[in-house]
From TrEMBL:
It comes from Desulfoglaeba alkanexedens ALDC. Keywords: Ribonucleoprotein, Ribosomal protein, RNA-binding, rRNA-binding. This is Small ribosomal subunit protein uS5. It comes from the Bacteria. The N-terminal domain interacts with the head of the 30S subunit; the C-terminal domain interacts with the body and contacts protein S4. The interaction surface between S4 and S5 is involved in control of translational fidelity. GO terms for molecular function: rRNA binding; structural constituent of ribosome. Part of the 30S ribosomal subunit. Contacts proteins S4 and S8. PANTHER family: MITOCHONDRIAL RIBOSOMAL PROTEIN S5 (PTHR48277).
Length: 166
């Protein structure tokens, strides 16, 4: 996993996985590469991209372009997530739980990359089922998309956020 920071936009890039795939043709095997890339601003915005190309740098570039295009907002509360959530994709499930300040990011490789890119500083996670990096990243992002802030929940219920916390 590599991390880069671009100075002008302050977007954090994390390469989660690079795989070499082969296509068997009459003359032998043709190799190409796929790269799973996660980007975020470290302040509640995160995105994911899958790039495929004949060369690794081109696959990473394509993944970055897709990830930057598909970024979305994650509600954060004091450096953690507002509530427990379960994200699922394929045979992968990821449990995300808020943690008290100072806990850190307790997560495996693919989930950790997503959490750090999103700017989550304290969270407890558990991967259940398949550990395939592609499915784990999508399950994690699915869980993050389900998150709602106290203000959003209060608006739907017609209450003030202070009433919900009590």
């Amino acid at each position: 996993m590599a991390a880069f920071e671009s100075s002008e936009t302050q977007i954090i890039d994390k390469i989660v996985h690079i795989s070499r795939v082969a296509k068997v043709v009459k003359g032998g095997r043709r190799f190409s590469f796929s790269a799973i890339v996660v980007v975020g601003d470290g302040n509640g915005r995160v995105g994911f991209g899958l790039g495929k190309a004949n060369e690794v740098p081109e696959a990473i570039r394509k993944g970055l372009d897709t990830a930057k295009r598909d970024m979305f907002e994650v509600p954060l509360m004091d450096g953690t997530i507002p509530h427990d959530v379960l994200g699922r994709f394929g045979a992968s499930s990821v449990v995300l739980k808020p943690a008290s300040p100072g806990t850190g990011v307790i997560a495996g490789g693919a989930v950790r990359a997503v959490m750090e890119a999103a700017g989550v500083r304290d969270v407890l996670t558990k991967c259940i089922g398949s550990r395939n990096p592609h499915n784990v990243v999508k399950a994690t992002l699915g869980g993050l998309r389900q998150l709602r802030s106290a203000e959003a929940i209060g608006r739907t219920r017609g209450r003030e956020p202070q009433e919900l916390r009590a």
